[in-house]
Amino acid sequence: MGRSPVVVDALAVGAHHLTLTRTGWTPEDLAVAIAPAQTQTTSVVLVRDGTSTSEGPGTIAVHSAEKLGLVTVDGQPAPAAKDGTIPVSAGTHDVTIAVAQGKQTRTVTVYPQTRTDVVLGTDAAPRTIVIAPADDYLPVSAVHLDGTRLGVHYGGHDVVAHLGTTTYTIDGRATAYDAPPTLIRNRVYLPLELLTMLTLRDKK
């Protein structure tokens, strides 16, 4: 889903399991129960596993109910290994997958010796919305909130949006995201996809 802390929206009511992983730390599984019209919060402290895996490549695994066509990573063909994963260097990559409806592109961050899963949804399936605190990715000075109007200036990009509205104006062009800017405990949360785009140049 992304880097914690994150807010995962559009989950079905009922029980869910979350897995938290970090290279060099012991993974933890959490069970959460989602009730209608409520926000469920949870936290966990990871424990170091005693290994050192700060360097090295990672892998990408693409999952889809449809038959996949050509997969490219950063514009280059990326054949999968025997286990179905694509070996890549650690860092941020643009993954483009050819499917029956056309091409879909995802921007993903790969960590050393860690598998990053890319899941392609269908129009019939609800899409999970992931938002994250803007101040975890951007300097505080880059984000300005004036009433419901939100302005972001960072990395050569200018973003204008409004709380509760899913349309963002990025460098003068209107773009729709799955989640609006959200204010939670006086912190601005933005779609993880947007934050990744804004910080892409920093990570490469």
Commentary on this structure:
The chain has 204 residues and is mainly beta. Helices cover 6% and strands 48% of the residues. The protein contains 1 helix and 20 strands. Strand 19 and strand 20 form a beta hairpin. The relative contact order is 0.16. About 3% of the residues have low confidence.
Largest sheet: 5 strands, antiparallel
- Taking the alpha carbons of the first and last residues, their distance comes to 20 Å
Number of strands: 20
Spans of 5+ residues with little confidence (pLDDT < 50)? 123-128
Taken from the alpha-carbon principal axes, the silhouette is globular
Provide the structure class: mainly beta
Total count of helical runs of at least 4 residues: 1
Percent of residues in helical segments?
under 10%
Order of helices and strands: EEEEEEEEEEEEEEEEEEEEH
Radius of gyration: 18 Å
Provide a compact summary of the structure.
With 204 residues, the chain is mainly beta. The chain contains one helix and 20 strands.
